[in-house]
Design brief:
The complex is a heterodimer. Chain A is 84% helix and 0% strand. By secondary structure, chain A is mainly α. In chain A, helix 2 packs antiparallel against helix 3. Chain B is mostly helical. In chain B, 79% of the residues lie in helices and 0% in strands. Classes of the chains: A mainly alpha, B mainly alpha. At the A-B interface, helix 2 and helix 3 of A face helix 3, helix 5, helix 7 and helix 8 of B.
Chain lengths: 68, 250
């Protein structure tokens, strides 16, 4: 059981290191999905939200870590 | 679906570089096990890890074939974003001196010391524990390689080129490791992680957008544009977060 829990932790750790960054990425994807659903005639707007959201999430995460 | 040709080289290069990093990390642990307990437990553990990886790949293939393309691209894209941006963030923080660089020599020393301590406590079970350490290292680092290869080739027919990149990197590291017989500490790991983080993040944005139905301008070539954007923002992030060497956290 202990080994299984450890394996699961390692698996999650492959994708999530800084929880705030992971949350920001997921938020950017959800925002892009909402824009894609609400403005289907301009799908590139959703693409823009996704790109800017991810870049912003990365920059903010690094700045936050740098201040610690 | 667009032509996969423009993606073959980026996918192969990303898989090669990422696998190089993972293989170097796995080799360090396998070498530590071999140094303390010999090649038998180290080799058996590594081979068992490779066997489990092969089972995972064989089992995953048919399952992924059944998932609708857009859903597959969306899920893989999000996972690639999480995985790639995690690597990129860490590489940026290391380049900026916020966290120390990864040190294969130190990892090797720590693994060796830990195995020797285990030997002192429980000699009888040591071969088994040594094999397990080797198995775990190969399986965990190998899982990342498998994920990267599958993610880079999601529904785009680049599985062969991405796999070739990964296999080439693993063979190269194993070959050099056997010859020099010590951790490959001089591999510029952070530079590689920086480059791979940028490429995986770019692929992640591309797949996620495709999954959401975004018609990227330039189709597959948009990945190169995303990589450029990630590079510019990452370079800016390094400059913003940069710390004097003396302040680097230990």
């Amino acid at each position: 059981m202990n080994m299984l829990a450890q394996a699961l932790r390692e698996l999650v750790g492959m994708f999530v290191d800084d929880g705030a960054l992971a949350l920001a990425i997921v938020t950017a994807v959800i925002s892009a999905a909402m824009v894609a659903a609400l403005v289907p005639q301009a799908p590139l707007v959703a693409g823009g939200v996704l790109v800017l959201g991810c870049l912003g999430a990365l920059l903010l995460s690094v700045i936050k870590a740098g201040r610690r | 679906m667009t032509n996969a040709l423009p993606l073959i080289w980026p996918a192969m290069a990303a898989a090669f570089l990422a696998s190089l990093v993972e293989a170097v990390e796995a080799l360090t642990v396998v070498l530590a096990v071999a140094t303390v307990r010999g090649w038998r437990p180290a080799g058996s553990g590594a081979l068992a890890g490779l066997a489990i990886l092969a089972v995972i790949v064989v089992a995953l293939g048919p399952i992924l074939d059944r998932v609708p393309l857009h859903l597959l691209q969306l899920v893989i894209g999000i996972l690639l974003l999480l995985f790639g941006m995690r690597w990129l963030r860490k590489a940026i923080l290391r380049s900026a001196g916020v966290i120390p660089l990864h040190d294969e020599t130190l990892t090797f020393a720590n693994e060796t010391a830990e195995l020797r301590e285990q030997a002192r406590r429980n000699e009888a079970r040591l071969d088994w524990l040594a094999g397990l350490t080797s198995f775990k290292a190969v399986l965990l680092e190998g899982l990342e390689v498998v994920f990267i290869v599958i993610a880079l080739s999601a529904g785009r027919g680049t599985l062969v080129s991405a796999s070739a990149g990964a296999v080439l990197a693993c063979l190269l590291v194993v070959g050099v490791g056997f010859i020099v017989h010590r951790p490959l500490a001089r591999v510029p790991e952070n530079t590689l992680k920086f480059a791979v983080g940028i490429m995986l993040s770019a692929f992640g944005v591309f797949w996620t957008g495709e999954g959401l139905g975004v018609p990227w301008p330039g189709e597959d070539l948009a990945i190169i544009g995303f990589a450029g954007l990630f590079l510019v923002v990452s370079a800016a992030a390094v400059a913003v977060a940069r710390r004097p060497r003396a302040e680097v956290l230990s």
